């Protein structure tokens, strides 16, 4: 007989981290504006309820929202929140303060509570962002990795559905890379891959997405690019890759397969599969070349 373990609720730590991570994905300006709007609502509620209902926790929420963006706006929002909190208290105070310094002390005390909360949440948001970047970055080349490329591909496919613009995906394979590793060792092979990463990063426009998928395989996304446009771009990229790796012997080459979609592919996996197939066609027919097709031809 199996003994059923009682269900346990998830701890507050992971839940808090998940909330910060979700909020951090939103634009910082939107988070700050939302925080200020929320602060206005809390101030109105605090004024309406007077001293019968405490809104102390409420004044923390705008600071939390602003801090989740990971910037410095949390300090500003903390100051505004402390001022608003003290202002509402001052406005609803029925009896005069025994000492004129009491409102000042209350203001400073509230800021001293709100600001550290914002600083801690902001630090956590930045740390989570750094961890996310590392999990999506290839450490050898500094390029996005396969996981990041799949996410970028899904984003571009969704954008393609909305705009109707074409999308070209290219698969780049380093020809002769095994010979470099066998001749000079893995350190030299790593240097070649790092050089490829530098060329890819510097040679393409800001709209292009590049990534190292693993081993000696790289990928490129060219949003809005037709087959003819992408062929021109990739041929120039091919020449730059050859120049950028000319210092190593034996020389390496690059087989590039590109497929242009005029209709959105089903998924990122489908997109990569098409480009991979065209690249291997290029390797079979003539290595160290660029081959481009449309999705209909590649299907």
Automatic annotation (TrEMBL):
Which residue range or ranges hold the GGDEF domain? 165-295
Q: Which Pfam families match?
A: GGDEF
Cellular component annotations (GO), alphabetically ordered: plasma membrane
A GO BP entry: negative regulation of bacterial-type flagellum-dependent cell motility
- GO: which molecular function terms? diguanylate cyclase activity
What is the protein's name according to its record? GGDEF domain-containing protein
**Coiled coil region boundaries:** none
Alphabetized InterPro entries for the sequence: Diguanylate_Cyclase, GGDEF_dom, Nucleotide_cyclase, Rev_trsase/Diguanyl_cyclase
